[in-house]
Amino acid sequence: MMSNATSPQQIAASLTEHWSPRVVAEVDDSYVKVAKVKGSLAWHSHEHEDELFLVLKGHLRIEMEDGVVELGEGEMFVVPKGVRHNPVAEQECHLMLIERKSTLHTGDVVSEKTRSLAEQLRPL
Q1: β-strand 30-40 against 85-100: which pairing, if any?
Q2: CB atoms inside a 10 Å sphere around CB 42
Q3: CA neighbours within 13 Å on the CB side: how many for 114?
Q4: Spatial separation of the C-alpha atoms in residues 14 and 105, rounded to whole Å
Q5: What H or E segment, with its residue span, contains residue 120?
Q6: Cα 111 to Cα 13, 76, 106, 115, distances in angstroms
Q7: Are the C-beta atoms of residues 22 and 36 closer than 8 Å to each other?
Q8: Which neighbouring-strand residues pair with 87?
Q9: What does pTM read for this prediction?
């Protein structure tokens, strides 16, 4: 099976919408996604899924009820399942996310920024 290498950085940089993750790969029962973010998403949690954030470019703050994690370029953090969190980017930030296929974009909360899985799976 032949395949092509992909560049999460290039794909994230090409996105035109903020807070609209796009699936770039599948690993077993998880999706690898990239997103371009700016501002605040929403306080939410994922009851049954961990969520990995990797900063490709810029800076991300993940607010949680028991503290804050600051991520710079090349740094990653896993938000454990069930932990309420709110990702915030003061300036535009490019992310790679790894999460189970069952993970809802904004978890237990729906806002105008929430994206369906169908939207996240649209061709790039």
Answers
A1: antiparallel
A2: 18
A3: 14
A4: 20
A5: helix 117-120
A6: 24, 25, 8, 9
A7: no
A8: 62
A9: 0.86
pLDDT in tens, 15-24: 999 988 999 9
* CA gap 11, 56 in Å, rounded: 11
Residue 94 three-state SS: strand
DSSP 2-48: ------HHHHHHH--SBT--EEEEEETTEEEEEEEEEEE---B--SS
Cβ(53)–Cβ(79) under 8 Å?
yes
Q: How far apart are CA 22 and CA 120, in angstroms?
A: 4
d(CA 37, CA 100): 20
Q: Over the stretch 82-118, which tens digit does the pLDDT of each residue have?
A: 999 999 999 999 999 999 988 766 666 666 666 676 7
Tokens 């090349």 identify what position? 74
Mind listing the pLDDT tens digit for each residue in 34-88? 999 999 988 999 899 999 999 999 999 999 999 999 999 999 999 999 999 999 9
